[in-house]
Design a protein that fits this description.
about 600 residues; alpha+beta; Glutamine Phosphoribosylpyrophosphate, subunit 1, domain 1; Rossmann fold; 3 domains; six-stranded antiparallel sheet; five-stranded parallel sheet; 18 strands
Length: about 600
């Protein structure tokens, strides 16, 4: 209901929702009172629950578990509701975990909460009479099609920082509710408040020892996986053979029988990206089924991207173009109900060792532990220990918080500036390394960067054709493991001077030793270049008279030159063009 408006009749609410309830793909009203109405899509394939408050004053939509437990929540009792009110909604995150959007009516004020992981999209827009909150922007398109258009300046941010998420979606009039935030709607104003802060976990509950941290990591990931297996009992696991996907499989032991899980490995056609031996070790240890799929350049047609359904924010689609049909086919043959993977491990387990010694001095007194931390950081970064010691001491003596920086490759910088006019207006340090979030200065610099990485990980499915949709689950990005990682200092995460060192120690008895010791990652698939050449004519048609060129986000001359050259302007330019195609397809979806 719009602020400043008296309660409208049930008939008025239903009339406003009619574009959603009276179409061939309809929504149904699941819950309503004098302040809001809640609708879900009738034929939706997801299995999100609608959990109502016993006082009929709100609901949780999603999959919710009791905190520190893998027991599903089915109803919210009056005491839980009152606790939520008294704690200003904090008890929602203290008492529950999962992926959800909560809607609570407190004394005729509406509060909409997005869970701390951001696992369900949550956007909103305002009309003259209503504030509409939705997870699928295509529903908003049905309600107020004439008010939704692309903000090209905001879309340029996504193009320059592919894979990142921003506070403002590139659809004008559409606003995003950030993970861990609450939309507060009263009669006289609307505001957004942050009710959950990962940084506070570090200041209040920091782990003291590496053994405590290892136990916490293991317990939280096992808890997360047990919870999701309560909902999905026959999953497919994308098993690369790397540490992250292998540890997800290892933590399933005792929770699901091997015949009820299928492991799927992609072989992309070159030695660098061939991880089959590691995948075989992991699957063999679990005694599960492993399918090895040979990817070829014929496995994707870029024209399919124009049939995809996109949400309010653009996402990279080259991988879904190649794999979504394959995964749907395997799911149908196996009878699978979802897709598990190990996404998020780089951020959560601490693949970076920057500023670990600095963090130790920030949190502790100068002692022998500082030199151990400096040695571990230097070993992980393959740098000089004494240089690390001096830099850490300078940062702390000067009370200076260093920002993480990335040195831009000169060729990459040149390719970006040729293709993206926006790069000519952006400093390269901003382009490559956006600054950390404005976290409390009581948090050491390395941990601030780590929390930034965790906070910007996005657990939302990639776009695909409706017939290829398969529910995706990212156990490593669940709330228990994210909150655990935020409590662990960086100098504990790199235990032994190895990226993911603490995680390797925590799960060392669950996985084959070669996987525990593995530090390499799969290379760039060979078929990515083959796909580019196969689809070059589609890229030409899409770009040269496309929306990104017309609106100044791509340089037409640079695009034409690259597509006319024998090798697509080189590997960097080919990669940038493939990334840009994701945004061109997204823009065309919303211009229709």
């Amino acid at each position: 209901m719009k602020t400043g408006k008296p309660s409208l009749s049930q008939q008025s609410l239903e009339a406003f929702c009619r574009p959603l309830t009276s179409t061939p793909d309809p929504y149904s009203i699941e819950f309503s009172n004098n302040r809001f109405v809640f609708l879900t899509q009738c034929n939706s394939k997801n299995i999100c629950d609608i959990i109502k408050f016993t006082k009929n004053d709100g609901l949780l939509f999603g999959n919710v578990f009791l905190n520190n437990s893998y027991n599903k929540l089915s109803v919210i009792y009056e005491n839980d509701y009152l606790n939520a009110v008294k704690s200003k909604l904090l008890s929602i995150t203290n008492d529950f975990w999962g992926r959800y959007i909560a809607i609570i009516n407190i004394r005729d004020n509406i509060y909409v909460l997005r869970d701390p992981t951001g696992a369900l999209d949550c956007y909103f827009f305002e009309t003259d009479d209503y504030i509409c909150v939705f997870s699928d922007a295509n529903a908003a398109k049905r309600l107020v099609r004439d008010k939704i258009h692309i903000n090209w300046m905001h879309l340029e941010n996504y193009l320059l920082f592919p894979g990142k998420t921003f506070q403002t979606p590139p659809l004008a009039n559409i606003k995003k509710l950030q993970a861990g935030s609450c939309l507060c709607i009263s009669y006289n104003h609307v505001c957004i408040k942050k009710y959950f802060d990962y940084g506070e976990l570090y200041t209040r509950q920091r782990t003291k020892t590496a053994s405590e941290a290892a136990e916490l990591l293991r317990w939280s990931l096992t808890l997360s996986i047990r919870g999701w297996l309560k909902i999905y009992n026959r999953p497919i696991l994308l098993l690369s053979g790397g540490f992250d996907s292998s540890v997800v499989l290892a933590c399933m032991k005792g929770e699901i029988s091997p015949e009820n899980i299928m492991c799927l490995n992609y072989n992309a056609g070159n030695n660098e990206s061939d991880e089959r031996n590691f995948a075989r070790m992991a699957a063999g240890s679990f005694k599960s089924i492993l399918f090895e799929h040979e990817e070829t350049f014929t496995s994707s047609n870029y024209s399919d991207a124009f049939d995809y359904i996109y949400n309010a924010e653009p996402k990279l689609i080259i991988e879904p173009l190649t794999r979504s049909k394959v995964q749907r086919s395997f799911a149908d043959s196996f009878g699978a109900d979802c897709l598990f993977n190990g996404t998020g491990g780089d951020s959560v387990f601490g693949a970076s060792a920057n500023f670990c010694a600095t963090d130790y001095l920030f949190d502790n007194q100068f002692n022998i532990g500082f030199f151990r931390a400096a040695h571990a950081e230097a070993r992980a970064n393959r740098s000089n220990m004494w240089t690390t010691v001096v830099q850490a001491a300078i940062y702390n003596l000067a009370n200076k918080h260093p920002q993480r920086t990335t040195i831009a490759d000169a060729n990459l910088k040149k390719a970006r500036q040729e293709l993206f006019p926006g790069c000519r207006r952006t400093e390269i340090t901003e382009l490559v390394a956006p600054p950390c979030f404005n976290l409390a200065t009581s948090i050491p610099p390395g941990k601030r960067c780590h929390i930034e990485e965790i906070s910007t990980e996005v657990w939302t499915p990639a776009p695909c054709r409706p017939q290829d949709r398969l529910e995706a689950v990212y156990p490593i990005m669940s709330q228990p493991i994210l909150t655990a990682a935020c409590r662990i200092p960086t100098y504990q995460l790199i235990l032994g001077g190895a990226p993911r060192g603490l995680a390797r120690q925590a799960f060392s008895d669950l996985m084959p030793k070669p996987i525990i010791q593995r530090t390499s990652k799969g290379g760039v698939p060979k078929n990515m270049d083959e796909q580019f050449y196969k689809n070059q004519h589609i890229l030409r048609e899409a770009f040269l008279d496309g929306l990104l060129v017309k609106n100044g986000l791509l340089d037409r001359k640079a695009v034409e030159c690259a597509l006319n050259s024998e090798f697509g302007g080189g590997p960097l330019m080919r990669s940038l063009l493939q990334i840009s195609f994701s945004y061109e397809a997204w823009a065309r979806h919303w211009i229709k």
